Records
---
Amino acid sequence: MININLLSVSNLPKLNKLRKLELSDNRVSGGLEVLAERTPNLTHLNLSGNKIKDINTLEPLKKLPNLHSLDLFNCEVTMLINYRESVFTLLPQLTYLDGFDADDQEAPDSDPEADGDGLEDEYENGEEDDDDEEDDLDEEVIDDEEDEDDDVEGEEEEDGVDDEEDEEEDGEEDEEDEADDDLPRGEKRKRNLEDEGEEDPEDEEDDEDD
């Protein structure tokens, strides 16, 4: 909520999970106890360019145990003697005030946890997992296709064996037919009648004469 002519934070909703709050370049002069009530897990607070004049105005921030960084650039309070020492004494949980720690060591450019970079990393990791899952699925599809090809080849081989058996049977029948063709006509006819279960008429006549 930067530069929106904000006079107070009294209407701030309850945001238990909020970590970083930007309120710079507004006209807030007090009422910071609301932050302790409604944003209890705040770690970064930027009040630069507001109307904060006294150290005591910051006292409600003592109730923010996780407050790690506080910015008060361009606030009148920064003009007070021993300003930095006073704020660090009042808020011992602070690590950085106006971008520097108590030993004047500059803060890192960004805090991944506060900026939400950690969430981006999790999102990217989620995408990588999805890619891995897709790769696994592709491999399974390829395996299934190979199995199907193997089954088809096996069926073709079985069909080949069946065809060979059929050809052998046909060959045997042709040989029998050829053998029949070599017999004398009478013998061939007699053999055919025997195959059909009938008697030769000549044999019947002989029986009658007897």
Note: Strands lie at 20-22, 44-46, 69-71, 96-97.
---
Amino acid sequence: MKNVTDSFVSLSRWPSAGSFGFNIDILSTNLINLSVVLGVLIFFGKGVLSDLLDNRKQRILNTIRNSEELRGGAIEQLEKARARLWQVEKEADQFRVNGYSEIEREKLNLINSTYKTLEQLENYKNETIQFEQQRTINQVRQRVFQQALRRALGILNSCLNNELHLRTISANIGMLGSMKEITD
């Protein structure tokens, strides 16, 4: 510590300008050298440092300006995208509503068509049943008539002689002939 205070004290007593020699006090020589270097740097480097700082300031301002322009463009694109999204969502809702109504309409058409088809099938079934019933009734009538005719012929053959038999046949042929004329 004593050397530091001595160097400051020795600063107040400078040797005369005409003498040249080695100063072995490191602290006092370093401070002088440092102050001289700083003075030269400040005097000569002030312009260069000012230019460097101005250039850096301009680059930062340009970067900020470009960033602001890009931000504005991005905000504009975002607004356009939001508007397009809103429009697409609106169209999608419209398609969804139209799709649901179209599905309901097709569903009702299908149900109505199915009911009509079922009704037609029911009518065909009823007609077929009536036709089959009528055909069966006609077949049963024919069989009953044939059996009745066979019985009647069997009874007549067993009960009648030839002369009575011929008269009955003639009478029956006459009756059938008159029935034919009535139906024509």
Note: Residues 31-176 form one domain.
